[in-house]
Write a structure and sequence with these properties.
Radius of gyration of chain B: 23 Å
Helix content of chain A: over 70%
Strand order of the largest sheet of chain B: 7-6-8-9-10-12-13
Helix content of chain B: 40-55%
Number of helices of chain B: 13
Order of helices and strands of chain B: HHEHEHEHEEHEHEHEHEHEHEEHHE
Number of strands of chain A: 4
Shape of chain B: globular
CATH superfamily of the largest domain in chain B: Response regulator
Largest sheet of chain A: 2 strands, antiparallel
Number of strands of chain B: 13
Oligomer: heterodimer
Largest interface: A-B, 65 and 61 residues
Mean pLDDT of chain B: 84
Radius of gyration of chain A: 20 Å
Number of domains of chain A: 1
Shape of chain A: globular
Strand content of chain B: 15-25%
CATH architecture of the largest domain in chain B: 3-Layer(aba) Sandwich
Structural class of chain A: mainly alpha
CATH topology of the largest domain in chain B: Rossmann fold
CATH class of the largest domain in chain B: Alpha Beta
Order of helices and strands of chain A: HHHHEHEEHHHHEHHH
Low-confidence stretches of chain B: 31-43
Distance between the termini of chain B: 65 Å
Structural class of chain B: alpha/beta
Mean pLDDT of chain A: 87
Largest sheet of chain B: 7 strands, mixed
Chain lengths: 310, 347
């Protein structure tokens, strides 16, 4: 049960990453590789600020701002200098590598005994449920602080999803979505699509940096290599979510990205829990993702065949 | 709305599978005091876990050493102990999942190999007894204030290289050496620390060391070539994860330009380095394993200070010395008693 709760917590933290990637890939159709840099950027900003004695909330929000900045640079490089979107992402990601080293001053900043957002959650748990309290959930004993941490992460992701949902329904948000869908049409209506793209990529990277910042606080260190592979994970989560929830309403697609991210971590946890050969781990994860992608379509087809027979 | 159910059902389904696999832990309270590990050692199997951060020759050697130590203490795998090996394959999110997976079971002892593994495990599992190795500087990694005053649940073996030893060896083999170079990895905290220590140790001996950064396997050769273009007389190559896996490109540059390479890991020697002063990673694992036995026997990790790995191998390659036009002094084995001079590499 702790394994389940822990995996869901990580899944929720990485759901912020999935939401970020969802914005750039799905809303704007912009293949943005900045993600791997801005994820670490968020982590390194938060870690350095916490070490410097800032309040963890401010440090986390600063990470969001840092992500906005990174995304803005990618957007500007793409729209103002007409650089291919992939390449502009690569440029900023590469540059961020050095920036991250400068921000942290070294390649790895430990937060083992610093006050982070998660120490707050734990303190809250101690105040509410008492120290070393244990909840019994259908037979499993789970430390109360794990449950509270999970609930707080859930709260954060729900709040951010709702903000995102609300935002994309405002006039500005609708114009942004239209930019991704049909930019000629929306330009004809007099919307500055370049500005929309810059803003969208910035927002996307803000979420990604926020995710990195939360993960660094959760795991207790920021490392300059922690962004490696994150874009692939995030993209896989978005696509799993889409495959499961094949509808287009905005709210459901956002929920799909979050569900996909959590599902993905659960699948990795199962692969680990079954104690498979560690060298096969990535192969197994790939197989899981493949099944998750193919199964819904397959089920639909068998349903159709059954209906046809009738 | 209907389609959202499909996602939720999938979530519930997968969670159920996970819970089913975790069924054996049902009803178990999460131990605060780990005193029952001693009872377990008497009554039956000891449950061990081992976490690698990344696949590298050094971490594989550490695992080998840990297993040797267990065998030497008459512990047989599957009879006296079970050991579950995890490998994050360089991915931090996987490493987080591994720590969750470890946290969901009860282990008598966890071995953490490499800095990120031990940092994450000590943060997530403050009750778990952890032994680390293949960590250059546990103090910089945040595991304690000093080698004696550290977190109560963790101890281990530091594999900091013997910088003075290598500088001494290279100064004997290359009298008049003034400018040496090394490739290092700015993204690895070990690597940066090693580079600084090497520069400091070399300065004491009147040798200047210049360092060139490399961030990926493809950049290692470029970095080595850039050093050659800055007229270094020898490579004094520090060891880190990146150089560990792509060290052969440095050896190639060294051979192509007839600039001898002195190294810190045994594998560099086997690739064709002129001489090495190597910490033995099998020995590091072995010593970590011995610490583990002490902890299993009831000692608290907090009482065991961190320490450096004890064994260092000096090896000199006679064939390479001829190639690079260096003479091995007759009295080398008197200056460095345990030096090994190898005439020909058996590849």
């Amino acid at each position: 049960m702790t394994l389940l709760i822990g995996s869901v917590t990580i899944g929720l933290i990485l759901a912020l990453l999935a939401l970020g990637i969802f914005i750039s890939f799905r809303i704007f159709d912009f293949p943005d590789i900045t993600a791997e840099g801005s994820f670490t950027f968020g982590a390194s900003i938060t870690a350095s600020m916490i070490i410097a004695g800032f309040n963890p909330v401010i440090a986390t929000l600063a990470a969001f701002a840092g992500g906005l900045l990174a995304g803005t640079s990618t957007g500007i490089i793409h729209t103002k200098f007409k650089v291919n979107p992939l390449l502009s992402g690569i440029l900023v990601m590469t540059a961020l590598y050095s920036v991250n080293l400068h921000v942290m001053g070294k390649s790895n900043v430990p937060l083992l005994s610093e006050k982070t957002l998660f120490t707050w959650f734990e303190n809250f748990s101690i105040q509410v449920s008492g120290k070393d309290a244990v909840f019994n959930i259908i037979g499993w004993n789970v430390p109360a602080k794990d449950i509270w941490t999970l609930l707080f992460c859930l709260l954060i992701i729900v709040v951010f999803s709702l903000i995102l949902l609300w935002f994309f329904r405002t006039n500005l948000g609708t114009a942004m979505r239209a930019t991704g869908d049909n930019d000629q049409m929306i330009r004809a209506l007099g919307v500055n699509t370049k500005g929309m793209i810059i803003f969208g990529v910035a927002l996307s990277n803000g979420f990604i940096a926020l995710s990195g910042s939360m993960l660094a606080q959760f795991q207790g260190f920021a490392d300059v290599q922690m962004g490696i592979g994150m874009m692939v994970w995030g993209l896989a989560s978005v696509i799993i979510g889409e495959a499961l929830i094949s509808e287009n309403s905005l709210g459901q697609v956002i929920a799909g990205a979050v569900i996909g991210a959590v599902l993905f971590r659960l699948l990795v946890a199962i692969a680990l829990r079954w104690g498979m050969n560690p060298n096969d781990l990535k192969l197994i994860t790939a197989a899981f993702v493949f099944i998750a992608l193919v199964l819904p379509g397959f089920m639909k087809r068998t349903k159709k065949i059954k209906l046809n027979r009738q | 709305m209907k389609s959202l159910y499909r996602g939720i059902i999938a979530l519930i389904l997968v969670s159920a599978i996970l819970l089913l696999s975790d069924l054996q832990n049902r009803g178990r309270t999460f131990g605060r005091k780990g005193s029952d590990s001693l009872k377990r050692i008497v009554s039956g199997k000891v449950k061990l876990a081992l976490v690698h951060y990344v696949d590298s020759p050094n971490s594989e050697d550490c695992e080998k050493g840990i297993r040797n130590a267990l065998t030497e203490n008459n512990l047989q795998e599957d009879e006296d102990y079970t050991i579950k090996v995890y490998n994050a394959q360089g991915d931090v999110s996987t490493l987080n999942s591994i720590s969750q997976s470890i946290g969901s079971e009860k282990w008598d002892l966890v071995f953490a190999i490499s800095t990120p593994s031990v940092q994450l495990l000590t943060k997530k599992l403050p009750e778990q007894k952890i032994i680390f190795t293949n960590v250059a500087d546990p103090v910089i990694a945040g595991l304690g204030k000093s080698f004696d005053d550290h977190l109560p649940n963790v101890t281990g073996v530091s594999t900091m290289s013997d910088f003075d030893g290598l500088i001494k060896l290279s100064a004997i083999l290359m009298p008049g050496l003034k400018l040496a170079g090394t490739v290092y990895t700015p993204s690895e905290i070990n690597s940066v620390a090693y580079k600084d220590y090497l520069v400091r140790a070399a300065k004491k001996a009147g040798i200047e060391v210049i360092a060139a950064p490399a961030n990926s396997a493809t950049e290692v050769m470029d970095a080595a070539n850039s050093l050659v273009s800055r007229n270094i007389e020898a490579f004094c190559q520090i060891s880190d994860n990146l150089v560990g896996s792509s060290g052969s490109s440095i050896i190639k540059v060294s051979n192509d330009n007839k600039i001898p390479c002195f190294g810190f890991v045994a594998s560099q020697f086997n690739l064709g380095a002129m001489a090495v002063c190597a910490r033995d990673y099998i020995q590091a694992g072995y010593e970590a394993g011995q610490m583990g036995i002490e902890v299993l026997a009831g000692k608290s990790p907090g009482q065991i200070p961190f320490r450096y790995v004890t064994m260092t191998h000096y090896r000199v390659n006679r064939e390479a010395a001829l190639f690079f036009g260096l003479t091995i002094p007759e009295n080398l084995s008197q200056i460095i008693p345990d030096v090994e001079i190898i005439d020909k590499l058996n590849k």
